[in-house]
Amino acid sequence: MTATDPSNPLLVRQGLPDYGAIRPEHVAPAIEQTLATQRAQIARLDAAEQFEFSGALDLEYVQTVVQRVWGPVLHLNAVVSTPALRDAYNDGLQQITDFWIEVGQNERLYRGFEYIKRRGEIPTAPGRKLVDNALRDFRLAGVDLDGPRRQRFGAVSRDLAAAQARFEQNLMDATDAFRRPVSDEAELAGMPPLIIERAREAAESEGSSG
Questions:
Q1: Using CA atoms in the order 106, 107, 111, 117, what is the torsion angle rounded to 10 degrees?
Q2: How many CB atoms lie within 10 A of CB 120?
Q3: CA pair distance 110, 107, nearest whole angstrom
Q4: CA torsion sign, 130 to 131 to 134 to 140?
Q5: pLDDT at residue 1, as a whole number
Q6: What is the reported pLDDT for 5?
């Protein structure tokens, strides 16, 4: 599937994401293709003899492209999670986390941003803010740590991402499983009639009254 292949809505770059068309089987190929393309772009930036402000814009675009693919998956997993989507999300989360760690701990890119900041030739306030934020994010990703501590930082980041995903999924499961039968409508005073009616329909669908 290519970035212009309409069979994978996650790879469409124009307009808003077509959430209704996204399926679990779209996630893996979209992530794999996108990360491969953006890693190639980062390799090109790494190979540049001199880092320019245009490189900072290119890196910002790389991050935007990845978020364009991952953002809809993140959202759908939070609001309409299914077992298949959850599996696709968890597999993708590992790859996305690895990618952000790679970018955040890329010392050559970090030094490139430091170089253009020292030169002081960024013409606009938004541009200077972009560089300052990038330098902050590199440091928060552990780029200044020595080798072993940097690797440990990456391992902890992976564990934290996985633990956060498990917590969110357990919370969703608990929310979906929660039931509280109510037979006295007076207990629902103040709730919108539409919500009360939906609750009544949900109870009926499960063979309960109230």
A1: 50
A2: 7
A3: 5
A4: negative
A5: 43
A6: 60
